[in-house]
Amino acid sequence: MNSRRSFVRRSLAGIVSLSAAPWLKASNPQRPVYPLVVSTWQNKAANQAAIETLQQGGRALDAVEQGVRVVEADPKDRSVGYGGRPDRDGKVTLDASIMDEHGNCGSVCFLQNIMHPVSVARKVMEETPHVMLAGQGAEAFALAQGFESKDLLTKASEREWKAWKKNANYEPTINIENHDTIGMLAIDTFGNLSGACTTSGLAYKFSGRVGDSPIIGSGLYVDNEAGAAVATGLGEAVVKTCGSFLVVELMRQGWSPTAACREAIKRIVSKQPGHKKFQVGFLALNTAGQVGAYSLQNGFMYTRHLQDKSDIQPSKYFL
Ligand code: ASP
User: What is the pTM of this model?
Assistant: First the structure.
């Protein structure tokens, strides 16, 4: 998603900021009655798919699944699904999770050859007694559920990986540029929250590496009584602090979404001395429909979509 970052560098000044206030004028301020979708980074097409699902009466759960599938299928997006950057052995391995308003959740990690890990995660949630399936087991489950097998390494990603191999000494590079996640949170017309996230993880990682995105409470957490949160950035840093769970628990205690995300970032800063070298961003939504985000470094943004209005908001940041 370097393109997203260059977008923000190029045009931050030109972003038209829609007023936040009208988004919050619900008849019941505790439970907005209109559909609302937010997602990490710049994802208008994904949010559009999600909002249409909600406008047709779909659940927030349906919306977040349909929304992130748009990015999973996009070969130009190098951090998610088809076209995602591979591990250091040239294999595209995917992590995803989904969580609904009842606290049901499902996830997959180290999944290969399946274009839509978020939908496999939903099947894990709905069709198995488990929460997470990994690797070959997850792939076999997906195939048994009717998902098609597909090589997810595009020519462009393969070229980049081969170029990386020449100079990288087989060591993954930890930086703020070569990884991202689409995380999406939504409130449906019933006032219920759900969330999903999906990623190909850190580029050129060790084979078998799993990030935060499929770990419930780290990359994603939803509690219909408190709020929902999703993370992007260096998964190892998020896992060490149970980031999304922390954000939701702070919102339960009355913190605003932005303040809760900031506190989770501060936790990373205070506990992880290497924090200047990586990026983490949190995006949160509370039950009143308030949205907030906070990141470690400059450059994080989120896309917000209410009914027919969509805007891209830069996140506040720590460093
Ligand atoms: N959190 C993801 C991971 O570590 C990648 C990212 O969002 O940048 O796998």
Answer: 0.90
